[in-house]
Amino acid sequence: MATSPTAYERYAPWRHWVEVGFIAAILGSNTVGNSITTWIDLNRSGSGDFHPWEPWVWETSSSLLWAALIPLIAMFTRRYPTHWDNWARRLPLHVLASVLVCLVHVLGMVALHVAAYRTQGMDYDFEFWPRGLVYEYLKDVRSYASIVVTVEVYRLLLRRLQGEASLLGAPDEGLPVEPVDRPQRFLVRKLGREFLVAADDIEWLQAAGNYVNLRVRGHDYPLRSTIGGIEEKLDPARFVRVHRSYIVNLEHVGSIEPLDIGDARAHMRDGSRVPVSRRHRASLRERSGGEV
Q1: Which tens digit of pLDDT belongs to each residue from 101-118?
Q2: What is the mean pLDDT of residues 95-101?
Q3: Dihedral over Cα of 242, 248, 249, 253: its sign
Q4: Per-residue burial over 99-131, b = 16 or more CB atoms within 10 Å of its CB, e = otherwise
Q5: CATH 3.20.10.10 is the classification of domain 176-288
Q6: What CA–CA distance (Å, rounded) separates 169 from 143?
Q7: With 80 as the cut, is the pLDDT of residue 292 above it?
Q8: This model's pTM is above 0.70
Q9: Distance CA 242, CA 88 (A)
Q10: Are the C-beta atoms of residues 213 and 205 closer than 8 Å to each other?
């Protein structure tokens, strides 16, 4: 029986457009607001040796560079996620990344400024390079930190909305009710509620950065683990690795479709299709007891 879509699943088709729209709205409002305030400040200070279009060039070029850098920062934080338990170890990495982001941002802005000024028959000179870079870095490092915090908080909210899985740890006192090294159930936290998911109910697993998505009755629950780490804890009689990013539960495999290139495709009972690489095809054939 089909399950009704969750709030996360209803949001998922719109996620890309919401994220792009949010970034565009923030950068657009900053461009307009900063251009106007810069123009007002220059007039108020009595600086008459500027053209009205110049503040718009300065702020627009900055926003265009941030529009290009934000996706790269998001990719970086996906590869090296920051949590409460690892922020101190990640800090040197973020400091280095912020320096690189600042250099790209400043050099890119200077290039755009030069091109814009030449269209007006003027020259642009970024004076005081050492001092100017330090000044720009003090601004950019705050922007970088704000982006990282926003991205990580947003991902945390998505995981809470989707339902984040975790392993059952050993109790503080007494013996565990089930083997810790071979879990029979996973704890899922979702919107302030907790419930248990049986390991046997997991249909397949997919690696997603520093998480592994557990597919259970049409829903995905991210578990903070590597695909290799969780493979060691699953029952080898039931779960088999079929791809560098996928593990399937043999009980939920409907059929196997061989492909001409030597790979295969597993058709799951829930209608999903999971890739089977040539490297793991023989193992799946042996474990499933069928022709693959």
Answers
A1: 999 999 999 999 999 999
A2: 97
A3: negative
A4: eebbeebbebbbebbeebbeeeeeebeeeeeee
A5: no
A6: 38
A7: no
A8: yes
A9: 36
A10: yes
Q: Where are the alpha helices (DSSP H) in the chain?
A: 7-44, 54-79, 87-119, 129-162, 227-231, 278-288
- Give CA–CA dist 53/117, Å, rounded: 10
Three-state SS string across 184-237, please? CEEEEEECCEEEEEEHHHCCEEEEECCEEEEEECCEEEEEECCHHHHHCCCCCC
Burial of residue 253, with CB atoms counted within 10 A of its CB: 0-12 exposed, 13-18 middle, 19 or more buried:
buried
- Residue 216 bridge partners (DSSP): 219
- Which residue ranges make up each domain of the chain? 7-162, 176-288
**How is residue 104 written in tokens?**
């790209």
For residue 275, the one-letter residue type is: P
pLDDT at 1: 42
Return all residues near 6 (Cβ < 8 A) that are at least 6 apart: 161, 162, 219
For 268, what's the count of Cα atoms within 13 Å in the CB-facing half-sphere?
22
Over the stretch 119-178, which tens digit does the pLDDT of each residue have?
Answer: 988 988 776 677 778 888 999 999 999 999 999 999 999 988 889 998 876 454 544 555
- What tokens appear for 201 in the block? 């109910």
Higher pLDDT, 178 or 20: 20
